[in-house]
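User: For documentation purposes, I need each entry recorded in a consistent format: the amino acid sequence on its own, followed directly by the corresponding structure tokens. There are two entries in this batch. Please keep commentary to a minimum and don't merge the entries.

Assistant: Recorded as requested. Entry 1:
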Amino acid sequence: MKCKNLLTLTLLFLLTLTYSYSQKLQITANHSDAKFILLNDYDDSDKQELGTGAIEYKLEKDSRNRIKVTKPGYEPVIKEFNKDLKWDKEQYVSLDSRRVEITAEPYDAEIYVDGRMIGTKAIYLIIQKDRFHTVEVKNQGLRPLRKVITIPLTGKPLLPRIILS
């Protein structure tokens, strides 16, 4: 009887210890409308939307705990929270790099970024915070156009529409 009670108490203690060890993280983005998405472990596809702006997330035992934070116009950020590591309860994710679509007309015009040919027709350009890029569009027989794209501290980047004529 004594052994049975000791075994029961030991199991109860181990269960309590295991439950209390599970980590819950408070993850906050620098944009209140940024979406948090849990990714599949095998192919990084979207598994489940977790919330917007700030979430509470319990680390899963048999998972890579990969979370993508995304907002239109920004480069998504992927964070992996390894279950075996001790994390601060408060985690902050900053979306700073802007994802800008640049299109050129006519569609066979070549698009250069900082002097390097990147593509034709349309490209996505990632611009880091406090950086700028020189975009040039060239087409045979037409005068080239050059624009500088900067990311202001607040708001959207100023995007010129580039049309060669």
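Entry 2:
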Amino acid sequence: MKQAKFITLVSDSLGVEEKTVKVVVRVLREAGLFTTGARGVNAPENTSLDAARVVLALTASPSPSRAAQDVSYFGALKADIREELHDATYELEIDRNHTLEELLVHCIDGRRLGQHEATAVLRLSDDGSAVIKGEFFYEQEFVQRDQWESFQKNKDGLDSGEMARLWLSSPEAKERFNRVLSTVINRSGEIPFQAIRTIANAFLEDEAAK
């Protein structure tokens, strides 16, 4: 999908002004997180990965300047499947090993959340938390699972100070810690998966028309 059409699609689907979408795209491109190439008739097609990243950025924050930071952070989260928590990946038909970014890419490529898609929403918060809410109170939280599992394997025999340093040894964990500490008013953004489905259908139609 060419960029002009892509910008209009995202704007109409998410109810965001086109100028805001353009700024987010520019910020992501400058950070190496969006397709680049020639301009004009030889410009590259925008991809489902581009769309997933723009959706993450626009949902996470109204500030385009945070787009690259938010995409890198939220996109890497994975479903929280710790034993003490309810694992809703089965009910929501989510691959538990996919990152949030990969999940959105699969949805835009045509994957569905089963019977929950009609009412499911993705919520991203300033403090770094992320959750997909479905029907019948099904909720799936997303966390820095790779960092958590690494921490669990290496924490035995460490005192509290050493455990804190171990946990904060990864940039991802440090960012979550800073988000929690710096968030006074915790604002959240939500996007219904029906809006993502609208984007997905437009990509499929564009591909079929080639």
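Summary note for entry 2:
Strands lie at 78-79, 121-125, 130-133, 139-143, 188-192.
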